[in-house]
Amino acid sequence: MDTGTAIARQPRWSQVCALTGMVAPMVLGGPINGDWFEAYVGQVLVPDLRRGDIVIMDNLSSHKRADVRALIEAAGARLMFLPPYSPDFNPIEKAFSRLKAMLRKAGERIVSGLWSLIGKLVDLFLPQECANYFASSGYDPD
């Protein structure tokens, strides 16, 4: 991908991350598949997990791979799935909504600038804000 060119149409981006702050972020140009997600879990998410962490995922088929569960549980974390069709219970959707609004406001139109901007914006998500996303989704963040 030529990262110095302008974005001519709305491309599809996939972002995955953990939410204790915006932890272990990764953005892909295009949709995410099972192989990419498993690589993300093993190489990006698991190194940031601590024993006792809870990982909450929606019901995307790539999230339900046995190796994904094994990687998370080997790190001492617990994997839970949201009920089907329940975006209101997904705290990461609230964070992504804010991130998308920040990206629209910035108006970046060059791919390389977009990657750089996302890297800066994810650092603005503080742990207390993320705890609020959990609380507003019905979870006790403590």
Automatic annotation (TrEMBL):
<dbReference type="InterPro" id="IPR036397">
    <property type="entry name" value="RNaseH_sf"/>
</dbReference>
<dbReference type="Pfam" id="PF13358">
    <property type="entry name" value="DDE_3"/>
</dbReference>
<dbReference type="GO" id="GO:0003676">
    <property type="term" value="F:nucleic acid binding"/>
</dbReference>
<feature type="domain" description="Tc1-like transposase DDE">
    <location>
        <begin position="21"/>
        <end position="105"/>
    </location>
</feature>
<dbReference type="InterPro" id="IPR038717">
    <property type="entry name" value="Tc1-like_DDE_dom"/>
</dbReference>
<protein>
    <submittedName>
        <fullName>Transposase</fullName>
    </submittedName>
</protein>
